[in-house]
# Entry
Amino acid sequence: MTDTLTATGEPSPPGSTDDDIQLLESARRHFAAAVGEGAPLFTTDISDLWKLFVESIPEAQRKEYACDACRTFVSRYGALATIDENGNLASAIWGESSGIFAQATGRLADAVGRARPNGVFFSNLSAWGTPITGPWEHLAVSLPESMIFRHALRTPRQEMAEKREDHAALCRALEDFSIEVVRNARQLLAAGDSLYRAEKVLGVAEWFLALHERRDATRNSRSKENLVWRAVATAPPGFTHIRSAMIGTLLEDLARGLDFAEIKERFDAKMHPLQYMRPTAGPSAGQIVEAEKAIAALAAAGSLDRRFARLEDVEAIWQPEASTAPPSNLASEAGVFGSLKAAVRRRKEPPTVEAPAITITWEKFARTVLPEAIEMEVYVPAANRSYIALTTADNASAPPILQWDREERRNPVSWYVYLNGSPPRDFNLAPDSYHRVTTVTLLPPMWGLDVPRPQWGQGVIFLLKGARDLKTSGGIGFFPEQLRAEFHPFRKTFEAFAKSTPVADQNEATACGLDLRKGGSWHNALIRVTSKSGRSSYQLDRWD
# Structure
């Protein structure tokens, strides 16, 4: 730090003093502990921290520490703060120190702790400050990899501006919708089949209610404000814009005092698959140009090409055991008469009597039946049922475009089903007969998840031998609601592309079958299971 003239006018001695080194190490240790692996940081309304810093060190040393590198660091990053789960705001940089800087760091930490947050901070730099100039060290910190802002479409400044808009929208929602109204909404959404596709909205309702309850349990008004900023920084994409989302429609209707029948009718209509997150008009020329720019920036052109999925693309939770039948002794014998079949006198056995099908939930079936199953068959009735086709990226190395597809754990598989179900012959299935199960898998967004994401859907799929969609002729490789948040501004263009671009390898599809969703109609799906103890039938009537 001491890279200027001393009070006597002589050049500073080379290198940093013990006090300097202790200050630098204190700042680095405190910052590392404050942010951990990536805690969000917040800008605050305090200013001119450098003046406070200089005034807090002994007057005899002030000229010695007139350091431009450190002044820049303190001015840019010194007022940054963290907010804990109780709404307590604390300095991200300043911790305990000793020597001539003890008072300075204490006063800076106190000043930041008493400030008000006014934004979420982002930076695309891996280190802040200038660590070394010549023989002198300066205030500087390094960031964990998870904190470095990387976005192909937005700069850190644009992201900060968007978070300010998120904060304003969330504050309006907290003011407009009381905690009682939000509790009522959450109750209706969690009540099974009360509202159509409620799982799409339940997650944001629970998040919004949790924020309301945390603020309601906090007496300190400043902490209440801080909790809102923390919620903005940590919210899943789209959660903060309550009024413009589907949850806003439900909350407004409840606040207006509408009866349940009218609330349900309005909610169900907007959640209809042909309406929810679907554009009402085609893209304009300008929107197509902007979408092209976004795709180019994200290097995601190849991600839009889709093909029908095959069994090797699927994360299985069950597959049939390989056949272990012993080879015939006669077939293995050599000799003159080895090719002849000996006459075998067989005793006529009575037909096998099966017990009536056991009605069971999926969760109990998965826990008690699935581990012992050797083979399984699904009964396919003549009536329409929800048959599903899985699709995936034609180019496996193309960047992710789906919400559940991540660079660190790739999962480019999506799906489609037909509204009101499909007759079995449309999926190459013979009606009123059993079909062999090749794989049991969960709905793709559930693959590899440690924490459930009900807004993405929850369900189990019985993939059936020979099942494939014979009806499709257009492109339905993905839907706008399945795309990552950065693609939502271009929904019209993506929808038009998806409709007009066929999914490849239709005749090679092997990942199609019966779709059973949590909260959906199961129609007592009949499953025949062969295990080591015999064969039994089960009727799956619900998820849990």
Summary: The mean pLDDT is 84. The two ends are 64 Å apart (CA to CA). The CA atoms of residues 167 and 232 lie 6 Å apart.
